Amino acid sequence: MIESLAYVGFVSPRAAEWASFGPQVLGLQLAPAQADGVVRLRMDDAAYRISVADGQHDGLDHLGWGVAGPAQFEAALQRVHAAGCKVVREGAELAASRCVAELASFSDPFGWRQEISWGQACRQNTFQPGRPMSGFVTGEAGLGHIVLISPDLARSEAFYLDVLGFRVTDEVRFMGQKIRFYNCNSRHHTLAMTEVPGMVGVHHLMLQVRSLDDVGTALDKVQQGAAELTVTLGRHCNDHMVSFYARTPAGFEIEYGWGAVDVHADESIPRMYDSGDIWGHQPVGGSWHPPGIMRPIGAGPGALPAIFGDRK
Ligand SMILES: [Fe+2]
């Protein structure tokens, strides 16, 4: 089934800022411009991994899941169709825009646009970081991880596990909030989700660098004013990532980290942690910032969990 998060697309009124924010702060490489004006950013030899298109509001436009080849592509589409989702086989034009061989799309139970593809274009030995740094941990582990807000964690989880083939890595319980972590390759988690009644959203996207010094260098830039630091340097209990969080020009946060452990075959029984961190990871300003991308679904917005303060 799903093998990795191959690419991800956002929309934002401040999309153009990513052309400098991505390379200068995060060390991403600006991909050659296409006629659509979308900012595409590279983090390895793949044609691109992150795109940000112009939009009226900050939002997640699509999640791009990769599968191994044409046979796995057909099998995945059958499973999604059998789960009751309308699958659209996208044409060559959109596939070329996403830089993949073949592409299909569907909406998940809460309206996120999901894409499945195989054959992500790759230009070997061409990645050049936007500033001096040692590079990103990607390859078969995909581009990183994304943390979503779901209005119904059980229903979302059933979709990702039963339809897309994810496995539960572990769970963290933290200030009354439950966060579940899911893997689809060697990365500790490619997806995590937590529940906020009535809301869908994106909390953060994690990029993993190859050196602790890369985290420190980026943290220096953020603390010098390149972006808003939202969570201080710390180390997570479950994946052991040493990271900090900063606000991007598209509202959502980037977790910029190093040193995460892989999922190993002998760790197939999910664990539970009653704390998120071994050390650090304190919210800047004293209370946790609400997710930068979040919108009401269905009947109404619901109440923010107590974990989030009143910060505007
Ligand atoms: Fe994370």
Describe this structure in words.
With 312 residues, the chain is an alpha+beta fold. It has two domains: 4-118, 2,3-Dihydroxybiphenyl 1,2-Dioxygenase, domain 1; 139-296, 2,3-Dihydroxybiphenyl 1,2-Dioxygenase, domain 1. The protein is 18% helix and 35% strand. It is built from five helices and 19 strands. Strand 7 and strand 8 (113-118) form a beta hairpin. The longest helix has 15 residues, at 212-226. It is globular and about 45 Å long. Residues 299-303 have low confidence and may be disordered. Bound molecules: fe (ii) ion (FE2). Residues 145, 147, 204, 206, 255 line the site of fe (ii) ion (FE2).
Strand content: 35-45%
What integer value in Å does the Rg equal? 18 Å
User: What is the CATH superfamily classification of the largest domain?
Assistant: 2,3-Dihydroxybiphenyl 1,2-Dioxygenase, domain 1
CATH class (first level) name of the largest domain: Alpha Beta
Mean pLDDT: 93
**Could you say which structural class the secondary elements and strand pairing correspond to?**
alpha+beta
What's the order of the H and E elements?
EHEEEEHEHEEEHEEEEHEEEEEE
Quick structural summary:
The chain is an alpha+beta fold. It has helices spanning 18-26, 70-82, 92-98, 153-163, 212-226; strands spanning 4-12, 29-30, 39-42, 50-54, 59-66, 88-89, 102-107, 113-118, 145-150, 167-174, 177-183, 191-195, 199-208, 228-236, 242-247, 253-258, 271-273, 277-280, 293-296.
Keywords:
312 residues; alpha+beta; 2,3-Dihydroxybiphenyl 1,2-Dioxygenase, domain 1; eleven-stranded mixed beta sheet; eight-stranded mixed beta sheet; 5 helices; 19 strands; binds fe (ii) ion
